[in-house]
Write a structure and sequence with these properties.
two-stranded antiparallel sheet; 6 helices
């Protein structure tokens, strides 16, 4: 089958679902029919997922950390035009690089969107008004802003 017969899937290595579109549609139809037959399905499924997470907590946390690290690297690359480094001092260790609100307002913005800035930036197609700074330059920028008041 040609690749166009498969839905895109961002977490799979080849970027496509393992089931073809027709098989996926049939699976969804069958799955929905099962849900309608059992009115308590949603609650049971929620409990099963919670049990799975508790019993596989270490693996779940590992996968979550890996996913967040990948999202952060993608966001940093997007705001650095591929050369991941601090906009001020050119420091390039991604462990110490952060996203900075160029015109301030980061605290207010985080309160509005929650603590998942990298996911928000990616979901909103990397809007302007942000830059990559290392933690030292981020601290210096904040200090300079306070001195200017």
């Amino acid at each position: 089958m040609p690749i166009s017969d498969y839905y895109k899937h961002p977490t799979h290595k080849d970027g496509h679902d393992s089931k073809c579109k027709e098989c996926q549609k049939q699976y969804q139809k069958d799955h929905r029919a099962l849900q309608l037959q059992n009115p308590t399905w949603a609650q049971e499924d929620k409990e099963k997922r919670k049990e799975y997470r508790v019993s596989n907590n270490e693996r779940f946390n590992y996968l979550l950390r890996r996913w967040r690290k990948n999202v952060k690297e993608e966001v940093l690359a997007a705001y650095c035009n591929g050369h991941v480094q601090c906009a001020r001092c050119k420091f390039s260790d991604p462990r110490a690089l952060t996203i900075d609100h160029i015109h301030g307002g980061g605290t207010r913005h985080r309160k509005e969107i929650g603590n998942h800035l990298h996911e928000w930036l990616r979901a909103n197609d990397y809007p302007p008004g942000f830059q990559v700074l290392c933690m030292n330059c981020q601290f210096i920028k904040e200090h300079e802003k306070k001195e200017g008041k």
